[in-house]
Amino acid sequence: MSSTNGDRQPVAIEVQGLHKSYAGVTVLDGINISVKPGEIFLIMGPSGSGKSVLLRQIAGLETPTAGQVRIDGMDPSLEETRDKVALALVFQSGALFNSMTVFDNLALYPREHRLHTESVIREKVMEALQMLSLTKAVAKFPSELSGGMKKRVAIARALVMQPQILLYDEPTSELDPIMGATIAEIIASLRKEIAVTTIVVSHDRDLAMTIADRVSIIMHGRIKTEGTPDELRASKDPEIVDFLNPTINLENPRFRNMEASNE
Ligand code: ADP
Ligand code: MG
User: Fold this and answer.
1) Does ligand 1 come within 6 angstroms of the Cβ of 173?
2) What are the tens digits of pLDDT across the range 67-116?
3) Across the beta sheet with 197-202, what order do the strands follow?
């Protein structure tokens, strides 16, 4: 383990019988996931299948309608859990503040929570930027950055929190394949460099099949199947074969969660 994450240990994530509905409309219908400490776990599913909703329950930003999430045995929606386990979510949009430089975006959380002195914050911010080859962008504003750089800044900002759990929502969306591959390498290398348990939700098959220890496919609000990339490739289930076929569009209505779809 490198010094980046101090003495922290990666933790396990358990999702048990999770249901989530909004105004009576079911989005997640009994999800069970068990992620081991230090693992990279991919949740793949078509657009609208409930991936972002699931990530919000795991991050403790929302509470399940039924069932539970446990990180290191604790409920992520409780403040005392957040004091004990450092969890960072990399939002699909990046969620950077446009009025702030890259440096100030990264320093915002530790400054607001008075986690360190200003000089220690500077050290941690620069260390995170260095890990993502972003030191030259330190004084830039988000509007001056490419889509790929914004994603990297969003990841660097998560690293400043010294997370034991890193959750990524569609980290390669809107990126060209080369930048997508770079982000995949970053996610894989961070797992080696810091002691972190990683969940990635994505509909990017290449990402899933290259970096995941295990992949879970979510359809219609349920886990359709789960396995290593090799196990999925060997699957004879026609729906999974189609799902992994690069010529088939995941926007295809038969993959969508019809019940929850509001179109
Ligand atoms: P994706 O797999 O593309 O990330 P989402 O998790 O964003 O899909 O959404 C799954 C379904 O849940 C969609 O039909 C969406 O409209 C619905 N949904 C998500 N968030 C809410 C909400 N806050 N209120 C009502 N419906 C929601
Ligand atoms: Mg989403």
Assistant:
1) no
2) 999 999 999 999 999 889 999 999 887 788 999 999 999 999 888 887 78
3) 87-90, 165-169, 197-202, 40-44, 214-219, 222-227
Q: Which two tokens stand for residue 98?
A: 């446009």
- Which atom of ligand 1 lies nearest, measured to the CA of 169? 4
* Confidence band for 176, pLDDT divided at 50, 70 and 90: confident
51 C-beta closer than 6 A to ligand 1: yes
pLDDT digits (tens, 9 = 90+) for 227-251: 999 999 999 988 888 888 877 766 6
What's this model's pTM, rounded to 2 decimal places? 0.89
- Judge if the beta carbon of residue 52 lies within 6 A of ligand 1: yes
- 49 C-beta closer than 6 A to ligand 1: yes
User: What is the DSSP pairing of strand 222-227 with strand 214-219?
Assistant: antiparallel
The amino acid at 98: N
Residues 238, 241: Cα–Cα separation, whole Å:
5
CA 226 – ligand 2 centroid, Å:
19
Q: Do 100 and 141 touch, CB atoms closer than 8 A?
A: yes
| Nearest Cα to Cα of residue 58 among 40, 50, 70 | 70
Q: Count Cα neighbours of 33 within 13 Å in the Cβ-side half-sphere.
A: 40
| Pocket perturbation via mutation, ligand 1, pick of 21, 25, 27, 243 by most ligand atoms within 8 A of CB | 27
- The H or E element containing residue 221 is none
